[in-house]
Design brief:
Blueprint lengths: L11 H10 L5 H21 L5 H22 L5 H11 L1 H16 L6 E2 L6 H16 L9 H27 L11 E2 H12 L10 E2 H14 L3 H11 L2 H17 L1 H5 L6 H12 L3 E2 L4
Parallel strand pairs: 3-4
Antiparallel strand pairs: 1-2
Helix pairs in contact: 1-4, 2-3, 3-5, 3-6, 5-6, 7-8, 7-11, 8-11
Length: 290
């Protein structure tokens, strides 16, 4: 019978305080306690509730996590003594500011590829910041905490989404009929349209379309039987370097799995094809016959 070994991973602040407790009594402990109390009071006032015991406890957990996240980011060393020296030298408030700034910058990144005008609303942005702060930085001092790992995962995911959104934004600005300035953006839909229409060849960038233009595409593809890869190469030749990885990945996926591309040369009815296109383009497709 094998016994699983559970590695203890308490918040970095707690581990640093443990290291402090092993030292002779001095002013550092009093100064650190005062700083943590001040940070907790501020967090309780702004993010939880400074009028209830529960609110203060939640604020303390957020303080522990915020300071711990800041320490993890500020120093490369993993030992507790180095963390303690950083706390003594820079202060808990400085560590908390580092951690909170990380959360604030993370909250500014898009969470998904559907971007709306409301995303820039100050009230919504503040609520999103608070939710992310609570999700990542709530750290019970007596429990294992995975805040840095959750932060790293979300940062990776959101940067990937940001790359998709930026690529779609570039495609919109270079739409063959002129820039599209609609504040609501379905980034995946924009990219889908650009890739689907690129199979015709010619390097024309299509970031939004209607039924009439799609019918023209279908007729052209069925008549001329273009080389899809040549069309995608023409599209890629126009894409700036910073967006090419996103576009290349999507082209590879669409080459194998896009039902519109698979069916466009068959005898599939136009109604069927347009319904398939809606699945990919979403709100970037004008369903009205123009």
């Amino acid at each position: 019978m094998q016994i699983a070994i559970v590695e203890e991973k308490l918040p970095r602040l707690v581990r640093a305080i443990r290291a402090l407790s092993a030292r002779p009594a001095g002013d550092e402990a009093v100064m650190l306690a005062d700083e943590l109390a001040g940070i907790t009071a501020m967090v309780a006032e702004k993010f939880t509730n400074d009028r209830t015991a529960e609110g203060i406890q939640r604020a303390f957990f957020l303080t522990v996590g915020g300071v711990s996240l800041g320490i993890d980011h500020a120093i490369e060393e993993t030992d507790d003594e180095t963390a303690l020296e950083y706390l003594i030298g820079e202060g808990a408030e400085a560590a908390f500011q580092v951690g909170f700034r990380m959360i604030k910058e993370l909250s500014a990144l898009p969470e998904d590829a559907l971007v709306g005008e409301y995303d820039q609303d100050p009230v919504y942005m503040q609520r999103r910041l608070k939710e992310l702060f609570v999700d990542i930085c709530s750290a019970d001092p007596s429990q294992n905490w995975s805040g840095p790992e959750r932060y790293a995962l979300q940062l990776k995911q959101r940067k990937a989404v940001q790359a998709i959104v930026r690529a779609a934004g570039w495609l919109r600005r270079h739409h063959y009929k002129g820039p599209i300035n609609d504040p609501d953006l379905n980034a995946e839909g924009v990219i889908a349209l650009a890739i689907i229409f690129a199979i015709e060849g010619g390097g024309r960038i299509v970031a939004r379309t209607g039924q009439k233009e799609f019918e023209r595409l279908v007729g052209s593809v069925r008549k001329n039987k273009p080389d899809y890869d040549a069309g995608w190469a023409e599209l890629m030749a126009k894409i700036p370097a910073q967006h090419q990885a996103v576009m290349a990945e999507r082209i590879a996926s669409y080459r194998e799995h896009c039902t519109v591309i698979q069916k466009i040369r068959t005898r599939a009815a136009m109604k069927t094809l347009f319904a398939e296109l809606e699945n990919y383009a979403g709100s970037e497709l004008d369903a009205d016959y123009d």
